[in-house]
Design goal:
alpha+beta, Alpha-Beta Plaits, three-stranded mixed sheet
């Protein structure tokens, strides 16, 4: 399926703003709901999503393995995953939710709850086993769990709310995927995208099902004139 043009996206039917709901209800049409941040959802759309760790907790390599495994697990079940990167204190994704029932799609809230609840549980178990607190970049209070005489383990690994954005058109899709690919480079975590273990791009990086798919040049600073990212 091709992305809608910018004009088509802007002509969607507005169904009103709802305040304070969780967003777990399947998405049938365009809607807005709000907690601390506004969340826009359109059935069948592509999304750029960012979630951050609680209080700037820095995820270890093993914790990042858990997070990317959690994201991969739901690929093809609740959404199609096009790109993601697991950074030490935040995650970026580009996804397209799948239908939950005919004509209704998984909501971003339900998708992210699945990813974050499982990964948080596994990371907390990892910290319990090792007795190591995650690295905190600054002092501050954090809810903690008792840890059998070892160092306390944080109760909340993730901030509750995500930043999510409906991708308007193909140009923005390239822009967001380009941002994801270059994120580890900008933060001096790798010199080349292929060197960063926790980076996935459909049909290119970390994808074992890439037969027949184009090799993407998204590691370049700018992407222009290409329309062959599998969508």
């Amino acid at each position: 399926m091709k992305l809608k043009s910018k004009n088509q996206t802007n002509n969607r039917n507005f169904t009103g703003q709802v305040s304070g709901i969780t967003g777990f209800k399947p998405v049938k049409e365009f809607r807005i709901y709000r907690k601390n941040l506004p969340h826009w959802e359109q059935a069948g759309s592509y999304y750029f999503i960012t979630c951050r760790t609680n209080n700037g907790v820095v995820l270890s390599a093993k914790a990042r393995n858990i997070v990317i495994d959690s994201i991969s697990f739901h690929d093809g079940k609740k959404y199609k995953l096009y790109a993601c990167v697991i950074m030490p204190n935040h995650v970026h994704l580009v996804i397209r939710p799948l239908e939950k029932v005919k004509g209704s799609f998984y909501s971003i809230a339900e998708i992210m709850h699945s990813i974050k609840s499982y990964s948080a549980k596994e990371v907390i178990e990892l910290l319990n086993d090792t007795g190591k607190m995650p690295v905190l970049p600054k002092l501050g209070r954090m809810p903690v769990l008792p840890n059998r005489g070892k160092m306390p383990v944080p109760l909340n690994i993730w901030l509750e709310e995500n930043f999510d954005r409906v991708i308007k058109d193909e140009n923005e899709l390239f822009e967001r995927m380009n941002y994801i690919v270059n994120n580890p480079i900008r933060k001096d975590l790798a010199r080349n995208p292929k060197d960063y273990k926790w980076l996935y791009v459909k049909g290119w990086l970390g994808d074992n099902s890439q037969a027949g798919m184009p090799v993407s040049p998204l590691c370049k600073k700018q992407v222009t004139g290409r329309s062959d990212i599998p969508v």
